[in-house]
């Protein structure tokens, strides 16, 4: 009976410790100024983890993401603007770090390619429909010639 009570106590203790364990939080650090904290939260949700690729910095538990979050906190505390922080991170990690890359002539093809492909698809579809319509007209002419 004592063994069951001891095991239950141990399980309860482990559950309590696990419930309050701070290591499960991805980013437990906060800034003292609520405005800076809001800017920080916005930035870490707009920026991509360079290791995880499809996670934001806020969602990633990779060590590199923790380093970048620490850098962002430091730059915010130093008075840097959001633009300066993003420019620094892009210069260091390339535009890959941005979930929404800026429009530039270098990446214009990324923005224009879907429209070009849509236009090509529409032209091909119109040509196919016209060719099939011509085949139907020729087929009807052959039937009319046989009937007369």
Description of the structure:
By secondary structure, this protein is mainly α. The protein has 2 domains: 9-100, Orthogonal Bundle (Helicase, Ruva Protein, domain 3), CATH 1.10.8; 104-136. The chain is 66% helix and 0% strand. The protein has 5 helices and no strands. It has helices at residues 2-19, 34-46, 63-77, 82-93, 108-147. The chain is elongated, with a radius of gyration of 30 Å. Mean pLDDT is 81; it is low at 21-25.
Task: Indicate the topology.
Elements: H1 2-19, H2 34-46, H3 63-77, H4 82-93, H5 108-147
Summarize the biggest pleated sheet: none
| Derived structural class | mainly alpha
CATH class of the largest domain: Mainly Alpha
Distance between the termini: 105 Å
Low-confidence stretches: 21-25
Helical percentage: 55-70%
Q: Report Rg.
A: 30 Å
Q: How many strands?
A: 0
How many separate structural domains?
2
CATH architecture tag of the largest domain: Orthogonal Bundle
CATH topology of the largest domain: Helicase, Ruva Protein, domain 3
Question: Which descriptor suits the 3D outline?
Answer: elongated
State which percent range the strand residues make up.
under 5%
Order of helices and strands: HHHHH
Count every helix, treating DSSP H or I runs of 4 or more residues as helices. Answer: 5
Mean pLDDT: 81
Name the CATH homologous superfamily of the largest domain. Cytochrome C biogenesis protein
List keywords for this structure.
single chain; 148 residues; mainly alpha; 2 domains; elongated; 66% helix; Helicase, Ruva Protein, domain 3
Summarize the structure.
This protein is mostly helical and 148 residues long. Helices cover 66% and strands 0% of the residues. α2 runs antiparallel to α3 (63-77).
